[in-house]
Amino acid sequence: MTLRIGQLAKMSGRTQSAIRYYEAQGLLGDVERAQGRRDFPESAVETMRVIDVAQRAGFSLAEIRELLAEGSRASSTLARLATTKAGEVTAEIADLRARHRWLRLASGCECAELTECRLFVDPACASP
């Protein structure tokens, strides 16, 4: 059985334009056409679920394409990509903590001039 794009959109919770975009990006494999209409295999619902979860985990479409291309060998690719992504997230967390610290300090600022404010003058404070 095959699915029309509207059916796939409804089952996956994605818009038809998103599905067309994923198809154009090579994430949905070869899609059959009948009378100019796309016919997706039922497995496309699961592929859409993988795309959704991977995007929420922070993977780029290129990384997702790589993961999907591996098929049954995907676990080693997933482990490699996840390790890299976890390192990136750790760096982002450190950056967010520093920015949060700076914003907390800034929320209590009572300086008359920004040019005299230690948050903008003191190098220790200047780098959020």
Describe this structure in words.
The protein has 128 residues and is mostly helical. It folds into two domains: 1-61, Multidrug-efflux Transporter Regulator, Chain: A, Domain 2, CATH 1.10.1660.10; 70-128. The protein is 64% helix and 8% strand. The protein is built from seven helices and three strands, in the order E-H-H-E-E-H-H-H-H-H. It has helices at 5-12, 16-24, 43-56, 61-69, 74-107, 118-121, 123-126, and strands spanning 2-3, 32-34, 37-41. Strand 2 (32-34) and strand 3 (37-41) form a beta hairpin. Helix 4 (61-69) packs antiparallel against helix 5. The longest helix has 34 residues, at 74-107. It is elongated. The termini are far apart. The mean pLDDT is 92.
SSE blueprint:
Blueprint: E1 2-3, H1 5-12, H2 16-24, E2 32-34, E3 37-41, H3 43-56, H4 61-69, H5 74-107, H6 118-121, H7 123-126
Antiparallel strand pairs: 1-3, 2-3
Helix pairs in contact: 4-5
Number of E-type strands = 3
Low-confidence stretches: none
User: Helical region count?
Assistant: 7
Strand order of the largest sheet: 1-3-2
What share of the residues does DSSP label as strand, in percent? 5-15%
**How many structural domains?**
2
Q: Could you give the distance between the termini? A: 55 Å
Tell me, briefly, the overall form.
elongated
User: Structural class per helix/strand content?
Assistant: mainly alpha
Radius of gyration: 23 Å
